[in-house]
From TrEMBL:
Belongs to the TBP family. It comes from Aegilops tauschii subsp. strangulata. General transcription factor that functions at the core of the DNA-binding multiprotein factor TFIID. Binding of TFIID to the TATA box is the initial transcriptional step of the pre-initiation complex (PIC), playing a role in the activation of eukaryotic genes transcribed by RNA polymerase II. Pfam families: TBP. It is found in: Nucleus. This is TATA-box-binding protein.
């Protein structure tokens, strides 16, 4: 990183660096019901799909902000050390599995559709 700064007009010393923010990303490989997550974890989350497509989850410990998308992709930001991103993911993963969208299949002889037709949590009527 220092090599790219050497062409600048000011002197840079590597001891002046301090990590302020670590950003990580991951994919849980399943879609997430953001509306249910926002409702159930309202004290920690903000979800306004008209303004931003992701749910903003402000974890208290560790103090990390997660951007959670319906696709299952997640951005973790605000960590000071790498281990905080791992801890935050370990904390949020069980919550995400609780709000996993389950795929429904229609395979009836009367139906023109065969295979997946959408995602719906089977325990509720919210689709």
């Amino acid at each position: 990183m220092l090599v790219s700064f050497r062409n600048l007009a000011f002197q840079l010393n590597s001891r002046d660096f301090k990590i302020q923010n670590i950003v990580g990303s991951c994919d849980v490989k399943f879609p997430i019901r953001l509306e249910g997550l926002a409702y159930s974890h309202g004290a920690f989350s903000s979800y306004e799909p008209e303004l931003f497509p992701g749910l903003i989850y402000r974890m208290k410990q560790p103090k990390i902000v997660l951007l959670i998308f319906v696709s299952g992709k997640i951005v973790l930001t605000g960590a000071k050390v790498r281990e905080e991103t791992y801890t935050a993911f370990e904390n949020i993963y069980p919550v995400l599995t609780e709000f996993r969208k389950v795929q429904q299949w229609i395979n009836s002889p009367d139906s023109q559709l065969q295979g997946p037709v959408g995602f719906c949590h089977l325990e509720s009527r919210d689709c």
